[in-house]
Design a protein that fits this description.
By secondary structure, the chain is of the alpha/beta class. The strands form 4 sheets. Strands 3, 4, 5, 6, 7, 11 and 17 form a 7-stranded mixed sheet that branches. Helix 6 crosses helix 9 and helix 7 runs parallel beside helix 8. It is globular and about 50 Å long.
């Protein structure tokens, strides 16, 4: 049994959920108007909530964390408890909810060979059998392909509308903004994602587990070599849990001269409090809000 966790002056749940960040609106009017959406992104280590008003301004961001888990049933149970908690309900009260999942178990299938009745087959070919999950599909808007991903069945029960993959939304956004040779690298707890684009076309997309910064560098260089790209030619764009001067940034910077950090989407504006968080920190959450 766990004691209630204090987050500021609020108790979120009797389970070990922790409020890591809470960026608030510039004024109450921005969150009181009609047409307010709450975009809820669910990962294996927590949940992020981004509120966007009818004027396409991001007005509030909440980052809730719990211990990382690979077990689908445990993950689904934690999310169900969190969604049902008084703290979560207070955060999203009066808003329209949109749910998305952030997970590595996603693949892309060309539309020409995709068939809805074979999506389970496509998914299990890569990730194997998994009990207690629902396998969903999501057409990509900016490429002739369909994404296939899984969520614990508990997610489909708590989501009031269809669940999306924030990772697939992120890839879809990149395909419209990438005209050069770019590798987008997103660092998360224990895992990192890598998507390489050339002339707006996705060459490779993959996830890797890592223990230290040198692991990320190794997989990055090996991936570039596999698609015959010289490391001197590619621009690497970093996002997620990485910062200038840390071990990951320094390791990659020793070999990659064109190294930058991702920016937030330009089709949204942001409350002043968002300046307190680096623009590259929550790429999946902002992509979901723009989908």
């Amino acid at each position: 049994n766990h004691q209630p966790v204090e987050t500021g002056n609020k108790v979120l749940s009797s389970l070990p959920f922790k409020e890591k960040i809470h960026l608030k609106a510039d004024n109450e009017h921005e969150t009181a108007q009609d047409g307010l959406f709450s975009f809820v992104c669910i990962s294996r280590s927590g949940m992020q909530i981004l509120k966007r008003n009818a004027g396409f301004k991001a007005v509030e961001l909440i980052d809730l964390r719990f211990p990382f888990t690979t077990d689908d049933a445990l993950w689904g149970g934690r999310i169900s408890d969190l969604v049902e908690s008084a703290g979560f309900q207070e955060h999203v009260a009066g808003t329209e909810l949109r749910f998305a999942v952030i997970d590595t178990k996603a693949t892309i299938v060309p539309s020409s060979i995709f068939a809805a009745n074979r999506k389970n087959e496509h998914f299990r070919f890569l990730f194997g059998e998994s009990d207690g999950v629902a396998i969903l599909d999501q057409p990509l808007s900016n490429s002739d392909a369909v994404g296939v991903f899984s969520v614990p069945t508990q997610f489909t029960e708590v989501a009031s509308n269809s669940m999306r993959s924030a990772y697939l939304d992120w890839l879809d956004t990149l395909s419209t903004s990438t005209s050069k040779l770019k590798a987008h690298l997103i660092v998360r707890e224990k895992q990192f994602g890598l998507a390489v684009f050339k002339d707006g076309a996705l060459l490779v997309s993959n996830w890797f587990e890592y223990g230290k910064a040198e692991d990320i560098l190794y997989y990055l260089m090996a991936t570039l070599e596999s698609v015959r790209i010289l490391h001197s030619e590619v621009e690497v764009v970093l996002s997620g849990e990485v910062d200038k001067g840390d071990e990951v940034h320094n390791a990659i910077g020793r070999f990659i001269s064109k190294l930058s950090f991702a920016k937030r989407p330009k089709n949204l504006t942001y409350s002043y409090s968002f300046k307190d968080v680096p623009e590259h920190r929550y790429p999946f959450l902002f992509s979901a809000a723009c989908a």
